[in-house]
Amino acid sequence: MKQKWMWHGIGAGLLSGILLGAFLWAVEEQSGRRVYTLLMNVDYIPVVNAVTYPAPVEFLFHLVVSVTLAVILLWLIRRMRMLGSRVIVWLVTVNTLVGVLIWPVTSLSGRTPAAADWVSLAWWLAGHALYGAVLGWLFRKEEEYGDEDYPLDNDRIRSSQ
Question: Whole-model pTM?
């Protein structure tokens, strides 16, 4: 299958998205910080915000975003021919920045943490860094599989680590 890498991106996005959701849910359950609520929040999306969705549907929205982001990031990594631990560092950085960029939407809903809630922000960014680290680890695994559709060969991968 010529687009085998895309299936890997979809799987990695699902797993990473589930772990991010579980992490932020646990933080919210233990601390009362509404970081999981923020992850599930669609109050700021026109038309979509007109309906109140059940929790599984909100989580499905989150997974769609996670899978889409993972496939795009894997495509970029392949395009840049990024290898080894650089993948993890880059993805932790990119996804932490995504967390920073999303954070201001907290001001658009009364259900989410206040924009100046620095403890919630720290948990939020930790979750997004975790998401990036898991994606990076899973993407490095793709290199090790020697997928014929992956643009790099295994000898170059092993020598770069």
Answer: 0.84
